[in-house]
Amino acid sequence: MTFPAPVSPLRFSRLLLTGAAGGLGRELRPRLKRYCDTLRLSDIADLGGASPGEEMQPVRLEDRSAVADLLKGVDAVVHLGGVSVETPFDPILQANIVGVFNLYEAARIHGVKRIVFASSNHVTGFYRQDEVIDTDAPMRPDGLYGVSKAFGENLSRFYFDRYGIETACLRIGSSFPEPKDRRMLATWMSFDDLERLVVACLTAPIVGHSVIYGISDNRTKWWDNTRAAHLGYVPQDSSEPFRAAVEARQPTLDLRDPAVIYQGGAFVRTGPLE
Amino acid sequence: MTFPAPVSPLRFSRLLLTGAAGGLGRELRPRLKRYCDTLRLSDIADLGGASPGEEMQPVRLEDRSAVADLLKGVDAVVHLGGVSVETPFDPILQANIVGVFNLYEAARIHGVKRIVFASSNHVTGFYRQDEVIDTDAPMRPDGLYGVSKAFGENLSRFYFDRYGIETACLRIGSSFPEPKDRRMLATWMSFDDLERLVVACLTAPIVGHSVIYGISDNRTKWWDNTRAAHLGYVPQDSSEPFRAAVEARQPTLDLRDPAVIYQGGAFVRTGPLE
Amino acid sequence: MTFPAPVSPLRFSRLLLTGAAGGLGRELRPRLKRYCDTLRLSDIADLGGASPGEEMQPVRLEDRSAVADLLKGVDAVVHLGGVSVETPFDPILQANIVGVFNLYEAARIHGVKRIVFASSNHVTGFYRQDEVIDTDAPMRPDGLYGVSKAFGENLSRFYFDRYGIETACLRIGSSFPEPKDRRMLATWMSFDDLERLVVACLTAPIVGHSVIYGISDNRTKWWDNTRAAHLGYVPQDSSEPFRAAVEARQPTLDLRDPAVIYQGGAFVRTGPLE
Amino acid sequence: MTFPAPVSPLRFSRLLLTGAAGGLGRELRPRLKRYCDTLRLSDIADLGGASPGEEMQPVRLEDRSAVADLLKGVDAVVHLGGVSVETPFDPILQANIVGVFNLYEAARIHGVKRIVFASSNHVTGFYRQDEVIDTDAPMRPDGLYGVSKAFGENLSRFYFDRYGIETACLRIGSSFPEPKDRRMLATWMSFDDLERLVVACLTAPIVGHSVIYGISDNRTKWWDNTRAAHLGYVPQDSSEPFRAAVEARQPTLDLRDPAVIYQGGAFVRTGPLE
Amino acid sequence: MTFPAPVSPLRFSRLLLTGAAGGLGRELRPRLKRYCDTLRLSDIADLGGASPGEEMQPVRLEDRSAVADLLKGVDAVVHLGGVSVETPFDPILQANIVGVFNLYEAARIHGVKRIVFASSNHVTGFYRQDEVIDTDAPMRPDGLYGVSKAFGENLSRFYFDRYGIETACLRIGSSFPEPKDRRMLATWMSFDDLERLVVACLTAPIVGHSVIYGISDNRTKWWDNTRAAHLGYVPQDSSEPFRAAVEARQPTLDLRDPAVIYQGGAFVRTGPLE
Amino acid sequence: MTFPAPVSPLRFSRLLLTGAAGGLGRELRPRLKRYCDTLRLSDIADLGGASPGEEMQPVRLEDRSAVADLLKGVDAVVHLGGVSVETPFDPILQANIVGVFNLYEAARIHGVKRIVFASSNHVTGFYRQDEVIDTDAPMRPDGLYGVSKAFGENLSRFYFDRYGIETACLRIGSSFPEPKDRRMLATWMSFDDLERLVVACLTAPIVGHSVIYGISDNRTKWWDNTRAAHLGYVPQDSSEPFRAAVEARQPTLDLRDPAVIYQGGAFVRTGPLE
User: Fold this and answer.
1) Mean pLDDT throughout A26-31?
2) Which residues contact C196 (CB under 8 A, 6 or more apart)?
3) Which of chain D's residues have a Cβ under 8 Å away from the Cβ of F98?
4) Which of D129, D132, D247, D261 would best serve as a mutation to test chain A binding (most A beta carbons within 10 A)?
5) Buried-exposed string E66-102: b where 16+ CB fall within 10 A, e elsewhere
6) Does the pLDDT at position D172 exceed 50?
7) H or E element: which one contains F109?
């Protein structure tokens, strides 16, 4: 099999968005459409009807041949699909481990050369909230979900070193309409900044294998993206306008609560039951 | 003795401000009142009359039992008290060494869980003005005053590791109404930024034991606060508007002068006489 | 469920050795017997007959309940089980991902507090042979096998941070009777040094979560174990006595061969077919 | 020979600008005039007529005695002279190696105490565009031009350590009226920012031997100037307003092209012919 | 006052040994005699009779003028004096803070140019026993004793930066006839190695301000002296021959005991009472 | 022009030794003969008669075409040629700058793939003798000679990054029959260790571009070769047996002497006259 020369475009013939029915997927769906002729959408949940320029291809990520088909004819992938919360191991295993392997195998087979991978801050959730880490700090996942995202980061590192498939791993903080609690004053990323981040990673001339934390320009920061400055992500939003309301709702914190101590927040209290 | 669960509040029942009659103390006094029901004030100099919500408790820091009383019923401390210039050893010993020990012992005895400690840039004053250091650089004090502040930082580190008492060590640059000389173009912190810094440290969900340089967003920087970004201090002021006036007053510098070479400025020329 | 206080012993009532029928397992079996009253052995391959003080409990690692039983009554585990070469994904998935998860869940359920985990140098196999890395260098696995070992390291990190189960991750180089090729002059670990390493990790007062490369005191080194010096592993053997014979068999190397360029050697050329 | 005390002024009696007829020299010529009584200009190309306060002293940099004369009576030097592109070795040798040696010898002889040296990003051009380096990263020049600039940086380091002559090495990215291609979105420095950078280095109280990358505040960054923050260079411009036009002209990039992979861009493809 | 040129000798006219009646002082007393014409001895405890070449000058370290007299005519100091265990603050304050200040002032006044200062591993005792630190790691003292030794290190740093008085800070582990417990297998230093270390620091051509951990070549290591290799200390002994006996006496450890978790051992449990 | 595949052999058909008539060249000449069929020798000084298996080809390094001829038919080069002491700039320029460029151009033209380059500790001679650096520390040359060796290191880095020509840069300390002074107790390398180092670099499977300090296993060390451990150089000798004699000859040192303060020793006092 031979592929055309790997090309870094600014606009794509066909982009694949997985997890398109999820919270972030629904936000990105109309926004990514602007960067491609065809936006292929996939999810296991209902995707609604296809708008012009959209095409639907729902697959289960653990279905290897369906995923292989999914990447056919695709220029680049924004992979939001999979489990995005702490659950028992089996769903995580299927979607985030088997599923991510299937995705990269499909990319290899079909010559897809760039993937924007929704990793998570929970890859490093067991660092403390009173320390600041950069993107090279050793992984300290805060649960099985975080461990599965670490798997995805390492697998994609291998596919870059071995096959030249570029991946930007986005360690997304908390992307919601607004920050919901005190922790999110540090971890929040607006939907507009999410778009900026994803588009920066899709259109950067070269991505190699990069790791970047997905946060807005918040006043409180635990994560230092200096080593990812080549990606050209400069957030424009901040959690600060929401501070007063958030603090009013949560005026005190218990300093013995692991969710207050560790960056992963409440995730560090889940995981298999003790 | 048992204490209630350590709680991180946004507003305090009773805050203690030591050194309340000093230059920075007088600035912070009305500002901190907004964050507490009662502001307890202490100094050895005249504190004037008590405003509503203020209470006076003047003590000498070297008086262990008086200091123990001082911290009774207090939620958190902003410790500006002590000697703040280079002097002979004995006053520094009493106020900044014995006094700081007394303060932490009192905090331990009364279950006070957070202290904002006015340390000083003179803890690292023997670095050169042509190098940039971060908050983890080995200490290089520029005089006995700087050595005493280093003592306070180390003592507070111990009280955190051993007793869980949180401290933010503020290595304050030069906090005055405006920068007075060329060096202060790098080291200046406005009073508004001082307030921002102190309040950030009082109200951050978790502080642990943190070190941060206290400067405004000046154009020239010797100190990199990246590792303290979790404190949420983002300065809003800058020495830049004062540059022209300062430079007009001090158009040349002697490159052989230790006060020009080292970050501590004129402090590096004091210390015990040669 | 409550467990007795976690204790760090020098000698064990019952040790579990998984992968006991493999190359390293057969070596360690008689050696580990000296450190315990009962040595429980497990593998999917034939284990031969039980010697005095041995007990057999063969399980498939992917069988969650069998693995749960396997760890019952065990003080500590030396986990060599699983796939130890590059294979298609499914066997690796079952043994090294599902299997390792099962092992840690079993350890959590039964209160086992220390695991010596046979990780692999292939976790970092895509570093070059002309660079020296330490145990904190970001992971760069050289194949699916390496990715699976990275999974095990991250999972065990989580089980330590969350449940206090200690793990020493041994990134074993090449443990054979003697080095077989030029690469192994750098990566070789004698069986005696393997024993020293495993025993050091079993009997160190405290292991926390540690990573260490498993090599003898070879003349050529790619891996710096300075950060693991607390484990007390000091190799006594070296590949040097084998150098002349090895070099005679392999007098030239092709500098364009990825197996010569990268630390993972021939593993970097395997992985899913191109 | 004795010199007056080394003084760090804000305004100079006589400044020397070499390379004054080149692209950057023509820009800086009127701007630097504002910071001195007399601006001495030198180049081997035509400098046009002298404006008031200018004096012309054209020399070939390889002419040792002429260069010695050139620095007589000079307070500080902005050294843009020499070859600024990849050429055969001999012109680079004469202008950038012999010439720079002549310049520093002249500075030593005449007691000139500060030099702003136009180094180049090509000193580190063989780093990849998907990595971010700081000013201490080991040099990786991308051609003979870059090697010659590395020579200048090392020579000036020696003249500082040995003779106290201060140098700011500006690793200039791409200083043109506007960015010409996608790479320059990362490397561009506006002429106004160039002036800010040069003036900051001329007027900083103390420079020692410093290295700083010369770029505007671009969205995409490969270079981290944190360690040079003492110089007080804060760029005010950005390549971002030019992005749309640049991307329209260069919508795709070939990811196999060394000029896309490495920071030095097309320079990495020149050098002695293969 | 003028002093003769600072000279680095191999043999001293007069050496001062403080703390000469303590455990380490009694060991070093006959050994140091070999390196000087006169060995001046000081302590507050009984020093016994003076041997030939010895002179006695007992002082209390908190007596400033007596300490000033003590350093008169001295070439170099080995300062073992002061409190060497965790006690209430006041004795530590007098001996280790006031006393060390007195010592350095006396050195400044009398032109003494090198001091070997017995610091302690307790300056960093709150690091964990499963981590390895080097001599630049931020201080984390484990008690008031450790805080006082940190004071001495910082004070001596100042006296070097300001007055050129050289100090080697020896962070002594556990120097006893033999290791007494499991922790000392990591921290032990034989008396012969203690002599090697002190003599290396006295006779190194240049010491500047250096920090080094005082341990033998033990199998288990928490401390990396790489940055102190210029001192030329290469230990010749090891705790290993004592391992079997030590382990027999202490076959199990409680992993919840702070003395097992932290490098400072039992010191971390002392400090002011909780 | 096409070359055969780059091959890393253990024994060479033809080795080139430049500077063969110098102090180190005369030592290496008989030793290197054992690793090749033909040893080509070059120098500008008298080489004496050719032994069997030797061939003479004396050239001036600044003669580009003669150097091009010199590398014809050569498998690898040990480049000791050039100026090895501080001299005026012109001889250094011709031999160490023009000459080294000629050498690498010749290597490129003739497909020579590995060069062992005699660099020097004087590349970093302005670090202090009380600090320990590794091979990545920024260059701080102590004279024009050191600057020229820095040029060679940077040029060879470029020829590796661009053309794949491997170089091991040996920052040789002091290689003499025995150490001559106190400084050489730190910097000395025996001739046997020199051979070990050169042979390790010639025969290592892959060298890339590496930097290593050339010293024996001396007790006092300023240089940390950890990052060069892949080269497999393990010194067997030490300056220690010579210590007593050396110290007897030089019992005191003047701590104000730059040659005592800086690693470069007396070189730091040479350079262009002040």
Assistant:
1) 98
2) C233, C234, C235, C236
3) 93
4) D132
5) bbbebbeebbbbbbbbbbbebbebebbbbbbbbbbbb
6) yes
7) helix F99-110
pLDDT over 50 (residue B1): no
Instruction: Assess whether pLDDT exceeds 60 at residue A110.
Output: yes
CA distance to partner chain E, nearest, from residue F259 (Å): 11
The answer, yes or no, to whether residue D194 has pLDDT greater than 70, is: yes
Contact B154 E141 (CB under 8 A): yes
Percent with pLDDT over 70 in chain D: 97
Q: Which two structure tokens, joined as six digits, stand for F234?
A: 């393990």
B12-269 is classed in which CATH architecture? 3-Layer(aba) Sandwich (3.40)
Distances, alpha carbon C47 to alpha carbons C40, C42, C57, C103, in Å: 11, 8, 10, 20
* Both tokens assigned to E205: 């051509």
pLDDT category, B4, cuts 50, 70, 90? low
Q: What is the largest CA-CA distance in chain F?
A: 61
Domain locations in chain E as residue ranges? 12-269
Task: State the smallest CA–CA distance between residue C224 and chain E in angstroms.
Answer: 12
- Length of chain E in residues, anyone? 274
Window 90-109 of A, Cβ < 8 Å to C: 93, 97-98, 101, 105, 108
pLDDT-derived band at D6 (thresholds 50, 70, 90) equals: confident
pLDDT at F8 over 90: no
Pairing of strands D76-79, D114-120: parallel
pLDDT at B8 over 90: no
DSSP tag of A3? -
b/e map A176-201, b = 16+ CB within 10 Å: beebebbbbbbbbbbbebbbbbbbbb
A158–C144 C-beta distance less than 8 A: yes
Show the DSSP H helices in chain A as ranges: 23-33, 64-70, 89-92, 99-110, 144-163, 184-187, 191-203, 243-249, 258-261
Given CB atoms, is A184 within the 8 Å cutoff of chain D? Answer: no
Chains A, F in contact, 3 or more Cβ pairs below 8 Å: no
The predicted pLDDT at position F271 comes to 67
Summarize the confidence of residues E145-156 as an average pLDDT. Answer: 98
Which are the contacts of D244, defined by CB distance < 8 A and separation ≥ 6?
none
Q: Is D152 helix (H, G, I), strand (E, B) or coil?
A: helix
* ipTM for the complex shown: 0.96
Of A171, A168, A213, A176, residue with least CA distance to A192: A176
**Token reading at D273:** 């012919």
A227/D255 CB distance under 8 A: no
Give A132 to chain B, closest Cα distance, Å. 5
State mean pLDDT over C26-53: 97
